[in-house]
Each structure stands twice: as structure tokens, then as C-alpha cells.
Amino acid sequence: MSSHNRVSAAGVLIALGIIYGDIGTSPLYVMNAIISGKTVTNELIVGALSLIIWTLTLQTTIKYVILTLQADNRGEGGIFSLYALVRRRKKWLVIPAMLGGAALLADGMITPPISVTSAVEGLKQIPGLQDISQWMVVYIVIAILSILFFVQQFGSAFIGKSFGPVMTVWFTMLALLGISHFSDDLSILKSFNPYYGIKLLVTYPSGFYILGGVFLCTTGAEALYSDLGHCGKWNIRYSWIFVKSCLIINYLGQGAWLLANHTGKVITPEMIEKGFNPFYGIMPQWFLYFGVAIATAATIIASQALISGSFTLVSEAMRLNLWPKLKIKYPTEAKGQLYVPAVNLLLYVGCIGIVLYFRKASNMEAAYGLAITVTMIATSILFANYVVTHRVKPLLVVLYLAVYLTIELSFFYANLEKFPHGGFVTLIVGGILFLVMYDWFRARKIKNRYMEFVRLEDYIPKLQELSNDRSVPKYATHLVYLT
Predict the structure, then answer these.
(1) What separation in angstroms does the CA of 337 have from each of 75, 84, 112, 146, 154?
(2) What is the pLDDT of residues 339-369, one digit of tens each?
(3) Does 300 score more than 60 pLDDT?
(4) Which of 110, 24, 69, 53 lies closest to 379 in space, CA to CA?
């Protein structure tokens, strides 16, 4: 086991700081996305919580943390690392790899805005600040994102060390707030039974489309795999046990609070616009200032997870000749940590554009998740090919594809409802990024047709002769690399 994969307290702390921002801040907006425009009933809340628990179990825990993390390419993770392991198997696998990579980069442009905006909108819950204008929220979000993108150049080890303790406080806070509301309505414990989730999908009016909101609880799973190179798989696996427990406890607390205080009420979009949010609802009044502050700090880390993952993604795409060559900087000595200035600028411009276009977190929820389902489907296809190369029984491969393509295509279909409400933005961005990759890939293929490769053996005697010839001056500036 390499030192990179060894479990250590510092490794787990850095994993908490770098990896879980995206998935760890989803309690800020998941329940709002599910209940918006609906009447709060026991059937809705218990069913939705059941879907959340089993999505986190099947999708994040089993697919990513247990299975996909096995596919590490010399310590690196992400969809292009996975493609590098299987590309010799089938030529067409480059298409799902490019589609998945482009969708993940597009998702990197909406994760920071939705996370930070959801947290800053918590200011509307604080007495005396209820009338804060949405434009003021937008200005605060833009300021926070500008600082975040500026500090990227110092590397994720610097960020992980400073953010790890903050995320530990964040997850502990999630668990304590959730536990404090369990007694509001103990019927939420029924949600561990998947029957209630399936019943909601089948019997609730337009229940299937609730999956579009439920899916938001697992959007950070792909970033978790992309950031494998920053922390090592065992640090990720051990820290995930703590993270998942805290997330589920918080969701249950929000559900119990909704049932105790809002059963029979319709949660209108206007209520959400004015700041209604079960996440802040479970906080005591005196705790709100601290709650909003730590939520904002945690969402900065949420943004970090996908930004650092995007750098890794693009550097791997360049190595595979799927992306134009860009300058890469290595800000620290730590393995797998890099900074790509051009990608940082691209993501920054995209994030600011999305904040100005959507303005409210509830509007961003409508666009969020559609692109990342494409990446998850692509990962399933590539991982199935990876396990085939490791001589796994064909029946198990078919079972894996049947289970995960059914889940992910269901999420994709449910998320298609978001297309007219803003989902088209991330798909257009992802489409442009895919075209860049595809054009670069095709151009490289065309160029290679006109390149002639010669055998090195024919030239070795001449090179030795040249090396031994003292009459030819040798300069350190003239180096020949034989590849």
C-alpha cells in the first residue's frame, strides 16, 4: 500500500476539506427542491426521505465509494482516468468519456453558485435582515466566488488544511441539528424502509419527477471520484462513513420538523423566495448567525471540490490528447495537486454568469443535476468495461449495468423536466465543451495519418557517432528526446 493510500488522521481531515463540499452542502437545498409547490404530507416526506437514504446508499456508497474507487489509475481518479484504463478495449468508449468529462466541467460552473447562494440566502431568516434584497445576496455571492477562485493558485493542500476543521464542524452541526428534531415526529424513521420511497414514486401525482429533486443529494459523488488523487481511496472511504451518517441524520431532522410544523400546508414558490428553508428552520433563532456563517464557509468548500476536480479532469484530458494544451502549475509538493489558470478563469466566468442569470438558488435548482446525470451514465458504461478487463463474471457485469443504468436513466428522465427551466444552460455549456474535445480528438487523428514513424534502431549508430565526435560542439540547450 503506497503512502498515498495509507489512512491517517491528516489524510481524513484533508479528505473532509477537499472531497465532500458538494455532497456535504446538499441539505441546504434538497428538501426545498422536493417540496416546492407541494402540500406537506406524511406520505411525501417519509417517501422523499426514503428515496434520499437509498440514493445515498446505492449511488454514492455502493457505486462510487465501494466500486468505482477501485478503478484508480496510478492513484488518480475521475472519468478520464477510468477511460485511460479501458481505452484499448473499444474505440467508441472515447465518446462516453468525452460526454461525461464535458458534463462534469459544465456542472462545475453551477455547483459553486447554487451552494453559495443557498447559504447566503439564509440571511433572510435572521431577524432584522428579512428584507435584504436579492441583488444584495447576488453581490455577496460574487464577492465570495471571486475570493475562492483567487486562492486556487495556492493549491488544495493549503485549502484542505484550512478547510478540513471547518467541514468537521459543519458535519457535526448537521448531525446535532438533525438529532434535536427527531422527537418532533418519530414516523420519519419509517423512511429507512425502501417501500415508502417506491410507493411515493408509483402512487403520488407526478411522483416520478420528485426524483429530479432527490437526485441533488448525490450530485457530488462524481467529484468525489475525481478528487481521488488528492487524498487516496482509503481516506475517502473512512471519512464517508462519518459524512453519510451526518447527512442522513440532518435530512431526517428536516423531515420531522416539516411534519410537526407544516403538515397540510402548501409550500409555495413565493414562500421559498422569501427565505423559507427547512435547513434553517431546524436552527434555534439564537444560532442563526453562526449557522449562516458556517453554511457559507462549507459552501465555499463545496465549490472547491469541483474546482480541484476540474483541474485534474482537464490535465488528464490533455494527457489523453482530448483537450488543447494548457499551462499547468504545481503549487505544492503533494501528489495529484495542480492548478490550471485557463480552466480557473473559464470556471470563474461561467460561475459569475450563472449567478447573474439565475440570481436565486430556487431558480438554480431548476437547472441543476441534468448535466451530471450524463456523467454518471458515462461512468457506469466505462466502469462496466473496466471490470470486464479484470475478468469479472459476465452475469455480475450485466447486473451492475442493469441496476445502475436503470437508476441513472430514471434520474435523467426526471431531470429532463428541468430543461426549459434552465437545464438547457448547463447542457449548452457541456455541448460546447464536448465539441472542443471531439474536434481536438478528430484533428489529432487526421494529423497522425500524415505522420511517419521510423524505427529508432536505424539511427542509434549515427547518434553514437555524433555523440563521440569531439569536433561538434554540444550545448545543454539542444536536447533530443527519443520517444
Answers:
(1) 12, 19, 20, 21, 10
(2) 889 999 999 999 999 999 888 877 787 777 7
(3) yes
(4) 69
Which of 417, 304, 404, 307 has its CA nearest to residue 370?
A: 417
Please check the confidence at residue 468 and state whether its pLDDT lies above 90. no
Confirm if 164 and 16 have CB atoms less than 8 A apart.
yes
Residue 120 sits at φ, ψ, to 5 deg, of: -65, -30
Rounded (10°) angle between helices 341-358 and 111-120: 50
Indicate whether 465 belongs to any domain: no
| Beta-strand runs (E) in 8-102 | none
In degrees rounded to 5, what are phi and psi of residue 76?
A: -100, 150
- Domain encompassing residue 187: 9-452
pLDDT of res. 3: 46
> Per residue in 307-327, pLDDT tens?
877 887 888 889 888 899 888
Angle subtended at Cα 76 by Cα 70 and Cα 78, rounded to the nearest 5 degrees: 80
Helices 370-389 + 394-415 axis angle, to 10: 170
Q: Which residues pair with 73 in a beta bridge?
A: 76
Contact indicator for 223, 309 with CB cutoff of 8 Å: yes
Q: Of 159, 150, 296, which Cα lies nearest the Cα of 230?
A: 159
**Within a domain: 350:** yes
Exposure string over 261-293, b if 16+ CB within 10 A, otherwise e: ebeeeebeeebbeebbbbbbbbbeeeebeebbe
Cα 259 to Cα 393: distance, rounded to the nearest angstrom = 46
CATH code: domain of residue 110: 1.20.1740.10
Q: Say how far apart CA 225 and CA 69 lie, in whole Å.
A: 6
Whole-model pTM: value is: 0.85
Please indicate, yes or no, if residue 2 is contained in any of the structural domains: no
d(CA 368, CA 383): 24
Q: Flag whether 478 is in a domain.
A: no
Max CA-CA distance within the chain?
94
Say yes or no to pLDDT of 435 above 70: yes
Considering its fold, how many domains does the chain have in total? Answer: 1
Contact 251, 34 (CB under 8 A): no
Please state the rounded mean pLDDT for residues 289-306. 83
Residue 2 above 60 pLDDT?
no
Q: Which ranges of 180-277 would DSSP assign to H, the alpha helix?
A: 194-203, 211-214, 221-226, 228-231, 233-262, 269-273
Whether residue 148 is predicted with pLDDT greater than 80 in this model: the reply is yes
Pick from 240, 211, 210: which is nearest to 225 by CA? Answer: 240
In this predicted structure, the answer to whether residue 4 has a pLDDT above a threshold of 70 is: no
pLDDT score recorded for residue 297 = 85
Cα-flanking dihedrals φ and ψ of residue 73, to 5°?
-100, 90
Average pLDDT, the chain: 85
For residue 163, give the nearest of 344, 28, 19, 338 by alpha carbon.
19
